[in-house]
Amino acid sequence: MATTASEVGQVQSNNRKSFTSVKALTESPQLTSLPPSYTYTTNSDDEHEIVTDPEEDDPIPVIDYSLLVAGTPDQRAKTIEDLGKACEEWGFFMLTNYFVSKSIMEKMVDEVFAFFNLREEEKQEYAGKDVMDPIRYGTSSNVSMDKVLFWRDFLKIVVHPEFHSPMKPPGFREALAEYSRRTWKLGKELLRGISESLGLGVNYMEHRMNLDSGLQMVAANLYPPCPQPELAMGIPPHSDHGLLNLLMQNGVSGLQLLRNGKWINVSSTSNCLLVFVSDHLEVLSNGKYKSVVHRAVVSNKATRISLAVVIAPSLDTVVEPAKELLDSQNNPAAYIGMKHRDYLQLQSSNRLNGKSVLDNVKI
C-alpha cells in the first residue's frame, strides 16, 4: 500500500530514523500539502521578516577577479581595497571573470542533479552521521536535533587535503575533481587579496591557516518544489564555518542575506560566483570582517540546486584573532582560539540559528 503524505509526516514526527529525503517525499503522488513536521514558524530565531532587493544606491559589491590576479598594480591595489570594503560592509560579494568556464560549472550542476536522481538506496550508501565523514548524504540540517525539518537534501564531500567522491553517477568524480581544483586555487587567491586588505601581507593567511593541509568541502543542496513554500524553509538563518564560501546556483533564486535588519533577495545569475565571509575569517580579523547570516527559501515552481565550496583552515589549526591586528588598549581580542576540528563538532551539536555557534567563541 502506498504511503500518503500525511502518513509520511506522522512517521517523520514520531520516528526520525525512518526519514529518507525530501525528494522521495515530493515524488509521492499523494503529496498535496506540507507535512506538519516541515511547518516552519517564524519566531525570535528569525525575527527580521522584511524582504527587499538591493537598492540602486547600495548594490551588492562586485569584485572582478581578473583584476586581482592579472591587473596592473593600480588595478590590483584598487581591487584589494574593494575586497576589504565588501568584507567589512557586507560580508558578501559577487565575483566575476574568475577563469572557471561556464561548461565546467554546468557540468558540475548536471552531475549534482544526476546524483540526487539516483535511486534512494544508492544515495543511502553515502548516508553519514558524523560531521567528519568524508562523504555525507542527508536531509534537513541535523535531523536528530531539528525541531522542524527543512526542505532540503544535501551531499557534503571533503575534497582537500584528500580528495573523496561518490562513485555514482559515472561522471561525477571527474567533474568534481576539476571543479574542486579550480575553486581551491580561486579561494586561495581571494584569501591572498583579503589578507593584504587587512594589512597582514599576501601570504599571511595561507601560512597561518595552514592551507596546504586546509579543508575544502563541497556541499551540494537540493531544494525540490514545495507544495506550500510559504510554510517551509530550505535552510534557516545561519553563518558558515571556514574562511570563505563560494556559492554557485542553477539559475533558480532562493538565497537571502540579512543586512541592516532586512532580508535581501540575491538574484541567481549564471555568470558569477557568490562569495560569503565565513566565521573563521571573522575570528581571524577580530570582527572587522563579519560572517554573513543567510538563509534559503523555497518555491513551488522549480527545483533549486546550490553548490557551496568551503575554503577553510586545516582541521588542527587553532583559529584566533591575528595578533598583528590586536591592541590591548583599543582592539583587544574579541574571540577565544579554537581548533577548527572542535568548531565543527560544536556546530554539529547546535541547531542552526544565526551566529549561535560563533557566539560560543566570543569573549
UniProtKB/TrEMBL annotation:
Biased composition (Polar residues): 19-43
PANTHER family tied to this protein: OXOGLUTARATE/IRON-DEPENDENT DIOXYGENASE
Single annotated GO MF: metal ion binding
Pfam families the record matches: 2OG-FeII_Oxy (PF03171), DIOX_N (PF14226)
UniProt keywords, alphabetically: Iron, Metal-binding, Oxidoreductase, Vitamin C
Coiled coil start-end: none
Disordered as annotated region, ranges: 19-56
Matches recorded under PROSITE patterns: FE2OG_OXY (PS51471)
Compositionally biased spans, kind Acidic residues: 44-56
Name of the gene this protein is made from: Vigan.01G149900
The protein's name: Fe2OG dioxygenase domain-containing protein
